[in-house]
Every structure is written in structure tokens, then in C-alpha cells.
## 1
Amino acid sequence: MLLNSYDSWSPLREVVLGSADNYTSHARELSFDLFFHDETPYSRIYYPRHVSPGAGTGRRSPIKQRYVEELREDVEQMADTFAQLSITVHRPLPLDAATGEVHTPAFAAAVVPPLNIRDNSIVFGDEIIETPPLVRSRYFETQFLKPVYAEYFRRGGRWTVMPRPMMTDASFDLSYVAEADKGSLFETITDPRPSPYDTGFEMMIDGAQCLRLGRDVFVNVSNANHALGCDWLERHLEGRFRVHRLHRLADSHIDSTVLALRPGLLLVRTPDVAEQLPKALQRWDMIFPPEPEDNNFPDYDDGDLILTSRYIDLNVLSVSPDTVMVNAACPELARTLEGRGFTVVPVRHRHRRLFGGGLHCFTLDTVREGSGPEDYLDY
Ligand SMILES: NC(=[NH2+])NCCC[C@H](N)C(=O)O
């Protein structure tokens, strides 16, 4: 089918589901530590928090083989669940075990598999946009999606790549983490190294920073890199979509903070978050998920890097305005949604905190029913 996706709730016809193959480690360097900065209270990132790119690809934080295998098992079951729901599933090329690191003029980085598909691409109607990544090891992630995107292009879809950043240390605006670190015990990231390719702050933004509501798109902007990305989106989408900025609703991604379940209904992390939403969204009805419990998550060792907050299971995927895929590890959330009239499709996803993403992050909804960008803000 032709690319057609304007929101996160219309009946789902086609989806891209990430690949977990060969996700064996996290490369600890400046861009990684910056990106996961807000999650460090939950994990045990030891000092020094990062090494500069001059020191190669940084330290690797290995992921236990057992978790990688269990992740793979869960992701393959997600694919089966989509098939049972008659939703076409597209898969990226899996990362080959022999692929080492990539080198650009400005940096070298390890490669991670295309797992959190939500992050580096976004669909606006009949157009797929590859976004400029925030983490160096994800620089070439959309390469694994070439066959899928090329097929949508052949069928008549638009296919756009946003400008790629140089990604030297100086490309990153550190103000968000500098402010967050004030008075805290965390080591501030203060030692960016100069590079001959420095060009000032660059455009870097992830698809997962956007909330798509038909004609209106809300974009989380928490630093100068995001602001440039949002400027680009605004100019590119002008006349087709209305872009609105959310100021620091989260560090970057917002899909474990706020999600739209159908017109007029949001799933929101907490009432505090609700207060920060723009007026137009505050008029919508809201569901607040029950506070996640410790026993919703596996117990990990000190060496296992935890990359998400406890709210990660809010990251559900809507199959239609009344059916939602929910992590089976979160029965409280399932009950809450059922209480509001939703049909819940439980899906097993054990290690979302180790791999930085829930069901929404692992997927990209490329085809949903609906024929154009509708105006939902009058609800
Ligand atoms: N698209 C994504 N990868 N989203 C994941 C966001 C996770 C968020 N930082 C949290 O810890 O709750």
C-alpha cells in the first residue's frame, strides 16, 4: 500500500518493526551519555561518564547474551502478533555480526542495529523523512531500512533525508544537561574536544520527539539542536502540516511522556506533565497510567546499563482507535485501558529498559487508514 500515516491511532495496515539481531553492546561516548543523561539516575553509569571521540569509539558497555536472545524472541513474537492482526510487517536488514565501526570525517562509532525504528524516521502522510540522529552509533541506522523505504518510493511515496550533521563534540548544545546537573552529584559533560570540522550547533532531532495529530504536529524542543531540526520541519511541512513547539516536555523523545490514543484522548505520564501541555491539548481527555511497580521489571545487575525510566511501558502502540498493544509485563496499565473501553493486545517485551524502547519505539506505522490530515484540535 501507499505510505499513509497522519496520526498514531487510525486503523493500522502496515508497520516497520525493528530488528534486535546482534545488539551486543552500547558505545559509551559523548553523544550516548548526553542522550541518556536523564536516565542516569536509574542506572549505574560510572565515572568518568564518557571519553572523547579522540579516544576511538569509547568504552563498550556489553549486554548479556541472554538478554539479547530474549529480546530477539520477544521482537519475533511481536511480528507474529502483527501478522495475526492482519497487519503487514516490514523488517529492516538485520545488522551483520561482522559489521564493526563506521568512520566519518569527524568521528568513529560502533554500529547498533535498527531496533528503535521510531527514532530516526517519521512519516507525514505520504512522505517518509529520515531524521538526523542524536547518537553517533546511530548515524547510519536508516541504511538498514533502504529496501523498505525504496519499496514505498516505488509505490509513489515521497522519501526525504534531513541534512546530516558532522557531529563533532562542538555540534552538541550541552545547555539542557548543564542545567539538569546543577547541584546534582552527576558529573557534568564539560570537556568537548575541538575538531577541524567544528561548525557550531547542528540540526539533530529524532522522529520520536513528534506527536502527530493529523494536520497538527507537536515537536519537543529542549536544546538548540532540536530547535534547528524543528525549524527545518516547519519550513519543509509548511502548507501541509502545522508545527507547534513543546518546550522541554522531556529531554528528547516524548513517547513515554504523552501519546494520543484517539482524537480527544491522550495517555499522559503524570498530572504534572499534563500541566505543561499546550492549552489546545489540555482540553483533551487524559488517562494517567498507574505508577509502574518495581516488579514490572526484571532485576538487573550493577553492570547492566538501564536506558529508560520506569514509565517506558506507557509506550504503547495503537492498532486502531479502540485497540492497543500493551506490554504484557504491565497488567495494571492493561486494566486501566480496558476500564476505558479499549481492547488490549498483550505483547511480551521484557528488556525494554536495557534497549531503550517500548512497543511504540520499536515500530514505525507507515500505513494507517484515513485519507488526509484532519483537524483534531477542536475536540
Ligand atoms: N522512541 C523512543 N526510543 N522512546 C523511548 C523514550 C524513553 C524515555 N527517555 C524514558 O526513559 O522513559
## 2
Amino acid sequence: MWRRRVGALLRSPRTSSSASSACQSRRHHLLPSEEPLALNRLARLFTSQAGSDGGDTQKPFIAFVLGGPGSGKGTQCTKIASDFGFAHLSAGDILRHEIASGSEKGELILEIIKEGRIVPSEITVELIRKAMEMNNAKRVLIDGFPRCEENRIAFERIVGTEPDIVIFFDCPEDEMVKRLLGRNQGRVDDNIETIKKRLKVFESLNIPVVDYYSSRGKVHKINATGTADEIFEAVRRLFSSLRL
Ligand SMILES: Nc1ncnc2c1ncn2[C@@H]1O[C@H](COP(=O)(O)OP(=O)(O)OP(=O)(O)O)[C@@H](O)[C@H]1O
Ligand SMILES: O=c1ccn([C@@H]2O[C@H](COP(=O)(O)O)[C@@H](O)[C@H]2O)c(=O)[nH]1
Ligand SMILES: [Mg+2]
């Protein structure tokens, strides 16, 4: 079984000491009173999952897709999904969907996104895990996650696997800012104040994740300047070379 069993989940420390300071102040993590509830809920989900498939589920091929805000992750993922048969799970879209649901969790997420900060790992990983379970795809793109080392560690612990590859879209800041200001999709974070914060968070917290996976030989860096079609040519070459 590729997913880690719930026993391991409950035995593991919530975060390593390096992870606890990695994302940001603990102030915005789950309130202490909410944590046992979150773990219990996860425990139930894992138990029922193990029962439903006899524990033989094949591990999907997972690609994390990283890059700065506006580097073109979503644009390229749409093309990869259509040409290479991947499910496209955008962490940002999943969080925005939770906001749209009107849940209490959604209110917290909205405040964090407006400030360009990172949503607590417990929330994001659980939403991604559920989306993966519902999708049950053999090839999955996880777009815009993990955002920080704590996210990465939480994913590997809770979902129980590492990505097979990590795609990193490398784009200059001025180009990213220009694209975001021109996106025009009504996103609450597409304004210059929040964009500046997102760029800082990207440099300080997301780049270390890229560095970590580089040290494990998993990162494929793509030059994200040029037209979307030009960039996709490099992406196509990469995906065509993979043993999927
Ligand atoms: N190569 C490109 N050249 C010019 N504009 C682009 C290019 N790729 C994407 N765009 C446009 O730039 C904007 C941002 O692209 P996209 O949403 O794909 O980025 P992203 O990395 O997913 O951003 P975010 O992290 O904010 O979700 C969109 O309006 C998109 O149409
Ligand atoms: O794993 C994640 C992904 C996203 N966020 C928050 O959402 C916004 C927007 O994300 P996009 O990927 O750019 O759509 C991001 O700035 C974060 O505030 C997150 O916390 N964790
Ligand atoms: Mg996006």
C-alpha cells in the first residue's frame, strides 16, 4: 500500500523542529483545540480508505509544479493535463474552492491569501489528499504546492509518498509582476501590495523546497520566459522523455 497507515500518521511528530519555524509564525496554524479533531478526522478517512481497496492501491505518478507567482504554472499544467493525461490539482484553486464553500475554514484561508501568506499545512494537505482520493488518477500534477518546507514534510508524512518529479518554472520577477497585473480574473491577491508579499514568501519559503528536491535529483528547471507555446515545447520534451 503506497499510502502510509494511520498508525504511522498518529505516531509521527506533527512537525520536525526545523519545519515548525519554516513557514511562518505558529499564530496562524490550527488552534490547539482544533488539532485533535483534525487528526481524528484524518484517522477515520485513512481507516475507511484502507478497508475500501484492500490496501493495494497503486501509487500514482506525482509531479509537483513549482514557480513564482505568475510564472505560468496553471497555464502549463492545463496543457500538460490535456496532452499527457494528467489530473491537474491546483492547490490555490482547491483553497479558493474552500473559500467559496462558505466554511469557517474558508474564512481563515481568505484572510491568509489576501495577505499572500501560506495556509496551515494541516488544512492544505488534507484538502489535497481528499482531492487525490476523489480523483484516483494514475498521473497527478500538484500545482503550486508545497509552498514551504513545513508543507513538504506534512505532505510526505500524511500522504506517505514523495513526488516522482518536481517541475520548476523559472521566471524573472518583473515578468511575473507584469503577468499578474494583467491576469484580470478578479483574484483578491492580484494587486501590487499582495504581489510584493507573495514574491518575498516565494523567495524565502518556496525556494528552499526547490533546493531540497534539487539535492535529491528530482527538479527539472524550465525557462518560463517566452510565449506559453514556446515554454510548452520544453515541457513537452521533458514529459515525452519520462517513463510514465
Ligand atoms: N508565457 C506567458 N507569457 C505571457 N503571459 C503568460 C504566459 N503564461 C501565462 N501567462 C499569463 O500570465 C498570467 C499568470 O499565469 P498563470 O495563472 O498560469 O500563472 P501561475 O504561475 O499559475 O500564477 P499563480 O501562482 O498566481 O497561480 C495569466 O494571465 C496567464 O494567461
Ligand atoms: O499550497 C498552497 C497554495 C496556495 N496557497 C495560498 O493561495 C495563494 C494563491 O495560490 P496560487 O497557487 O498562486 O493560486 C498563495 O499566495 C497562498 O496564499 C497556500 O497557502 N498554500
Ligand atoms: Mg496558478
## 3
Amino acid sequence: MSLSLQMLGTGNAFAKNYFNNNGLLLADDYTLLIDCGITAPLAMHTIGKSFRDVNATLITHIHADHVGGLEELALTLKHVYGKTMRLHLPETLVEPLWNNTLKGGLYQKDAVASLTDIFEVKPMKPGITYKLAPSLTLEIIHTPHIPGKDSYSLLINNEIFYSADMTFQPDLLIRLVREHGIRMILHDCQLGGSGVVHTTLEELMSLPEDVRRIIKLMHYSDEQPQFVGLTGEMEFIDQHVIYKL
Ligand SMILES: O=c1ccn([C@@H]2O[C@@H]3COP(=O)(O)O[C@H]3[C@H]2O)c(=O)[nH]1
Ligand SMILES: [Zn+2]
Ligand SMILES: [Zn+2]
């Protein structure tokens, strides 16, 4: 069994030197796109891949750096390739993703009036393990981000935690490592300021050593090069590099 991750981008919502924090999870010959932000179509083009190469897409929450590329994805697949993308997403996001984000661009009288008319929708509930492919299972965990905006982190194969955008949750992280045996944490990382809607580097640095040791940092600002070497045991992941998980 082979599991790898290639981030299409590792930047935060306002980064200009990095694409949006979206990733390709490669489980043997199955590819899952985790989030599809505004820059995802260009990032895919940059690494020489097409949305046709993706078996399914998963959405963590509704912010443009995570869903802004879905209109292009859906229209390209439908009108250029005659395909439909399988879309895994928390059930609470199905209605707002359509009504608040995609309807404006994708609605078509008598043809496309809901998310299920343009995607193969697979709603998910927290606490249930979903088998997406022979060597890939996924569970969603509701994690705090912005008041009133549902956001969900991921448990991959019951051994890797992939954070959505989230505020600092030390108890969850410690529990995942010490009680659940998680062996890797991919975490969003705000390099400066206070962690109002994201987790800051300073907060992650305050975690115990056994937790820090398995953290990889993503969703960072253009200031990232100034922080290389200043993150303790935690390493930045680079966009487009394929990491064996
Ligand atoms: O109360 C708020 C709400 C939002 N924001 C910014 O908007 C961005 C939206 O995408 P993001 O979730 O990746 O990051 C968010 C932040 O950079 C913020 O700083 N404070
Ligand atoms: Zn984001
Ligand atoms: Zn967000």
C-alpha cells in the first residue's frame, strides 16, 4: 500500500508566492483532491495534471481558498470531458455550498438546479469512517474556525490528522497522538499575530515535544522563508513536492 501527498499549494488565503492550501492525496492508483480553491485549476496545470486525473474531491469548509475552483472544475469536466466529479463533503455544507457559493455560476434552467445536478455528491457525517478506496479511509472531525462557519479536519486511514483551517486545539492534538496513536499531523500555521481564526506557530511551539515531533506545517503566508529554521521539530511542507506519508 502506498500513500503520498502532493500539495497543489501551501499558502494561506492571501499568499501570492504560494497557491491555495489544497492537496492531492495519492492512495495507490486513487487520487483525492482535498479542497479546490481559486488557484487549484492553475496549480493543477502547473504540475501537469488535469482534474480528469482526480477520482474524487473533498471539501473541508466554504472559503474561497478551499472551494473557489469548484466552478471551473465542474464546468471543465462537464463541457470538455463529459464527466462528473465525485464530491465528498460534510452534510452540513451541501446546502450552503450550493446556495451561497456555486449557484451563481453553475445554475442552468431545467438542467442544473442543485449540487447533485453537477456533482456526484457523497455527504459525510463526523464520527463515521468512510472507505473511499481500497487503501484509503477518511473520517471528518468538526474543528473550530470561524463562528457560524462549519469546518472539518480529516483523519486519514485512522493514523494521519490533516487540519482544516482551525483555531488551536491542544487537547485534541494531544489526545490524537497519545490515545489514538496518530503518527503524523499536517497543520495550518499562521506565522505571526494572534490566532483568531487559525492556529499560530507560537501556539504549535507550545505543544509537548512528542506532539511537535510529528507536525508538518502548511497554509502559511508569503513570509514563510523568514521562518525556516525557527519552527523547532516541526517542518514546513513545500507545495508540489510528493511526500510519502
Ligand atoms: O475573522 C476573520 C475572518 C477571516 N479572516 C481572514 O480571511 C481568510 C479567509 O480564508 P482563511 O480561512 O484561509 O483565512 C482567513 C483569514 O486570513 C480573518 O483574518 N479573520
Ligand atoms: Zn484557508
Ligand atoms: Zn478558512
## 4
Amino acid sequence: MILYGARGQAKVIYDLILSNNHLLEYLVDDNPPDHFPHNLNVYRPTPELLKDQRLIIAIGDNLLREKIYHEIKHLCEFETMQHYSAYVSRFTEVGEGTVIMPQVCINAEVKIGKHCIINTSAIIEHECIIEDFVHISPTAALAGNILVKKGAHIGLGANLIQGITIGENALIGAGSVVLKDVPANAVVVGNPGRIIKMNGVENGQ
Ligand SMILES: CC(=O)SCCNC(=O)CCNC(=O)[C@H](O)C(C)(C)COP(=O)(O)OP(=O)(O)OC[C@H]1O[C@@H](n2cnc3c(N)ncnc32)[C@H](O)[C@@H]1OP(=O)(O)O
């Protein structure tokens, strides 16, 4: 298999690949770094290098990951990967291209979309729905029945109370405690969480 992206996210996914006894053949990156550890080769992507490969898009930025997905989806197939130390309920669905990192806990009846990153030690409780291209950062905790819409990013160690909806492309700041619905494209920080930006514009509250 191969990785698209050769920065920090690729380094942790390479480790995940080895933990699962898979082989990484090479990486591609639009702007290859001078050096990638472990003597792995990084090339600029071409249709020949991507064609019929099994691949993970190893890019933390949700919008960029989605953009690349649309550019290459006709060429390759996408691998889904889960670290052996993660607990993923047998009643959970996980979409293609999603990675589940070490020590994650995902409880029953959760649905996780395509090309998501469920990062180290995140907790996703029962019946949550995580749409495509979402990133749940390390140690974030989601109580039951939460809907996280496409492209949202839940920051490091954020805590989300049960039953709420996080809108498309919303960003929940590190350590925030979110008690109510968050609209699309909002940036929320603090405890209790408050909106500091909407659509990239400062809120002024
Ligand atoms: C493996 C990995 O590395 S995965 C990646 C994990 N990383 C994360 O989760 C990071 C998430 N990002 C954050 O928390 C960021 O601080 C953001 C996106 C919420 C805000 O970033 P910016 O838009 O650049 O806002 P900026 O830094 O200008 O801060 C604006 C205000 O919000 C405050 N603020 C920013 N982030 C937070 C936060 N997480 N909690 C509380 N307050 C915050 C700032 O102190 C500042 O307040 P002030 O105006 O009173 O001085």
C-alpha cells in the first residue's frame, strides 16, 4: 500500500501500518520533503504511481484531505486501518480511508464516515454519527448521540456533552467543553464553549 502525504500524519500512519503487519511501498506528496525517515521514497503523485494502489490519504487538514480524495478517487482504492489497541464495538460502522489510532474507544452503534481521523485515545460514545472527513483529535471525548458533520475538527482534549450537533467544517478548540449545538464554520473555544469566529471572521463577543 501507499500513503498520500509525507508529513507528521504520514509518520504516525506509517507506524500504524507496521503495527498491522502491512508493508508501505512508497509515499507521494505534492511537495515532497527533502527527507522521510526509514529510507522510504517520496515521489510527486502521478496517475501511474497511484493507479490501482491501496492508499490512505495521510493529511491532517480536513479540507485538503477531501480535495485530494476528489482528485484521486477514480484511480485507487482506499484502505481503512485500526490500531490493535483500539476498542471498536462490533456494532460500529467505519467508512473507507478512515484511520483509528492507538487506545481509541468507540462504543456501540456509532457510525463513522469516510476518510476520518480518529486520533490517539479519543472516546466516541454510543450512537454518535461522525460524517466524512472529520478529525477527532487526541483525547477528545464525545458523549452519546452526538452528530459531527462533514469536515469538522474536534480539538485536542475537547469534551462534548450528549445529543448535540457540530456543524459542517466547525472547529472545536483544544480543551473546550461544548454544551450546545455548534453552527457550520464556527470556531468554538473555552468552558463553556463560545463562538469566537464564524466563517473566518472574529465574533467580537
Ligand atoms: C496529533 C495532533 O497534533 S492533532 C491536532 C490537535 N490540535 C488541536 O486540537 C488544536 C486546535 N486549535 C485550537 O485550539 C486553536 O487555538 C483555535 C483553532 C481554536 C483558535 O486558533 P486561532 O483562530 O488562531 O485563534 P487565536 O489563537 O487568535 O485565539 C483567539 C482567542 O481565543 C483564545 N483561544 C484560542 N484557542 C483556545 C482554546 N483552545 N481554549 C481557550 N481559548 C482559546 C485565545 O487565547 C484568544 O483569546 P484573546 O482574544 O482573549 O487573546
